Amino acid sequence: MPDCEAAFYVREELALGKGRLAAMEIEILPGGYVNLRPHYDTVIRVRRVTGYLSATVNFNDAKRAEMAAREGHI
Q: What three-state secondary structure class fits 23?
């Protein structure tokens, strides 16, 4: 399968918006059929920033910048 065709399948899966695509298995079947098995990242990161808990995918640009600027503590 050409890389451009594989990239097409990945783009189409991403357009469905089911979450963060971690990997995709592409199997070519007899007769020219293609079997796609997407694997999504099921870990949801939750952070406490300025007093409330929220999934990081819901953060706006300011919250993402605030999270990136935080110092880690051991």
A: strand
Q: Which residue from 13, 20, 25 is spatially nearest to 56, judged by alpha carbons?
A: 20
Instruction: State pTM to two decimals.
Output: 0.46
Residue for token pair 């899966």: 13
CA distances from 10 to 5, 7, 37, 43, 73 (A): 9, 5, 11, 20, 38
Please answer whether residues 36 and 25 qualify as being in contact, where contact means their C-beta atoms are separated by less than 8 angstroms: yes
Maximum C-alpha span of the chain:
57
Chain centre distance of CA 28: 24
* pLDDT tens for each residue of the chain, 74 residues long: 788 888 888 888 888 877 778 888 888 889 888 888 888 877 666 666 666 666 777 778 888 888 788 777 66
